[in-house]
Amino acid sequence: MGKNIFEYKSGLPATPSQPTFSLSTEGGDLLVQEVKVKVLGKNEVLRTYRIPLENIISLEIVTEKELKDKSVLGRGAVGALLLGPVGAVLGGMSGVGSKQKSVFMLAVAYATQSAPGEVKTLVFNAEYAGWLGQNQAAVRQIKKEMEGVQPSALVSQCIGQSVAPDGSIRL
What we know:
Elements: E1 6-10, E2 20-26, E3 29-36, E4 44-52, E5 56-62, H1 72-93, E6 105-111, E7 119-125, H2 132-146, H3 153-158, E8 162-163, E9 169-170
Antiparallel strand pairs: 1-2, 1-7, 2-3, 3-4, 5-6, 6-7, 8-9
């Protein structure tokens, strides 16, 4: 996977020491790595977070322009319709602050055993220091790797679905 750099915004259990992160996949996991950016050579990895690909509900780069309604509840509802749980989170956030410029954000919604039934979301600035093109390519590659992955029971629980013994999903 090509080099990518995202700026951390929210969602980790503790505030990272560096705002810069890199994403990749390894062994069926999404690796979210806090990095110290180096001009020459490989970035220094300070900490690695692993999310099983089967636990990812949504991984999207979005802008607030995609969310049109002006009320917080309306933006959240429109966002949820467009992009699922990630859209609801970003839709609610889209009315905060000024609307001078659309900012591309990466949102990763996932399920975890530490909080069954709850959707956790990591949010990053995808445009950090001119990296939008490389970051979009990295997300496309991760999503391609996720195509054949069956969602876990944790994901089904988060989105209110159950998996029958024959593998079918009850809506």
